[in-house]
Amino acid sequence: MSVNEAALPHVEELCVRADELGVLVEEVGGATLIDAGLEAAGGYQAGVIITRICLGGLGDAGLTYMPVRGLALPAVWVSTDQPALACLASQLAGWRINVDGYTAIGSGPARALAKKPKKLYQRLGYEDQAEIAIIVLESQKKPTASVLSFIAEACGVDVVNLYAVLVPTNSLAGLVQISGRVVETGIHKLETLGLDPARVRQGFGVAPIAPLHPSPEVCMGRSNDAILYGGTTHYVVSGDEELEDLVNKAPSTTSRDYGRPFIEIYEAAGRDFYKIDPGLFAPAQITVTSAETGKVYLAGGVNEEVLLRSFGLSK
Fold first, then answer.
1. For residue range 243-276, what is the model confidence (pLDDT) as tens digits?
2. I want to staple 230 with a disulfide (CB 3.0 to 4.6 A). Which of 45, 181, 208, 214 is the partner?
3. Residue 244 is inside which H or E element, if any?
4. What is d(CA 208, CA 274) in angstroms, rounded to the nearest whole number?
């Protein structure tokens, strides 16, 4: 099962529907670059398709709304029946790219070819041998030919077989695909607490989509809050061992830094992500059902007050 090959139809859809979806497609150094929010307008629909790409074609996503104190906030839902591969082997933003002064956070199927990070793929026991590579770049700049050549080489593919999707944080498509990481965020947190991701059979989640703002920093804060204070997830897991304890430790509510908009937490930490409690990075609410016993474990909850304050909607 190749996450790159499974995601390719969604990349092709972006290219075929480029005008309709508000994206720009061009060739850079032989690679195909799809701009979904830098010079292009992008939008909700492009964000949904990019979420499917990030999931390696092994999940689905769509638009909905989330009721919060009488408001109907736009939201994205995500589901997958291959959560370990879709979320950890593909969607996880696990590739920090820094080449010739260009920086980006890389996610999506290409990570499986480059094995970023290597230990994760060893734990998953997964390897992709596709001849095409698809990467999603969260950056405020367009990658150069040398950057794309570096990515292709790291993936072991010809640069002409590389597809790069560019989604700045301060773009609507970017905000959609960040909220579309709600299921992955929960699985990653459960894994760090000791749950074998292979035990997770299915995953479903919903998170509000943060309001667009011209500032990348404001969008960074709001998009984090969308998951930390508004994200809800549901998982079906094999076995029942330690599930109650794991779930109780998993939501963002357990973090010492919980309770303020992320931008305030970031400022208090001296703008140093490494000084922020890693336990904060989790959905607001996590529900896990044991496939064997039928027991359901629930922890956390949506924090409407902080969410609305972050989104600029508090009265």
1. 999 999 999 999 999 999 999 999 999 988 889 9
2. 208
3. helix 243-249
4. 26
